[in-house]
Specification:
Layout: E1 31-32, H1 35-44, E2 47-54, E3 57-68, E4 71-77, H2 81-85, E5 93-107, E6 115-129, H3 133-147, H4 160-165, E7 166-172, E8 175-181, E9 199-202, H5 224-227
Antiparallel strand pairs: 1-8, 2-3, 2-5, 3-4, 4-7, 5-6, 5-9, 6-7, 6-8
Amino acid sequence: MPETATPETTVDDAAYEPTDRTVPTRSRHRASYDRDLVHAILDEAYVCHLGFVRDGAPVVLPTLYGRVGERLYIHGSTGSRPLRMAGGTDPGLPVCLTVTHVDGLVLARSAFHHSINYRSVVVHGTAHQVTDPEEKRTALDALVDHVVPGRSLDSRPADAKELAATAVLRLDLTEVSAKVRTGGPNDEPEDATLPHWTGVVPLRTGYGAPVPADDLDPAVALPDYLRAL
């Protein structure tokens, strides 16, 4: 995704500053604050999980998102609870946003050491509802292009009614960490001779051939950005 951060969110540092909330209590060696790694993990995923507190109880919702520079945009209905909680004169909604890729199943000789290879990002911060019309259009374009790069230029933009029915949250990438596990099982030395298969089963994400809608005009060719997938 293009790096189009606004001046107030442009950051020159190559890494995010660790905080008490972004330093893990377990497997600290797997944590990273590298900005490029965080961006790559975010840009490759489609769904995030947005956590917040509602009426004193935790709530976690899966939703789409898009990144523009050092900001994430999350969209939803104007009637959804997190969007309403972050709007108006409220100072914003404290949230925790997560994204995870599962890259492999790690099968050890012992049940205790079974694991997965993964890449994840955790973002802490305060989400605010986007009210500026231009920023809102930029955010919605980013959401569409996050799913399929180039798609926002090849679809009708939202009209006034659709914009009024759609709310967008903005979450700055300030308090951020990545965590990555790679490699094989960590078996105990005394288990090395056990007669159990051990290793990694890789997981891959792939795309099938695009299936045109039933009412698509045959004269409309498959766009290059879909061929590139």
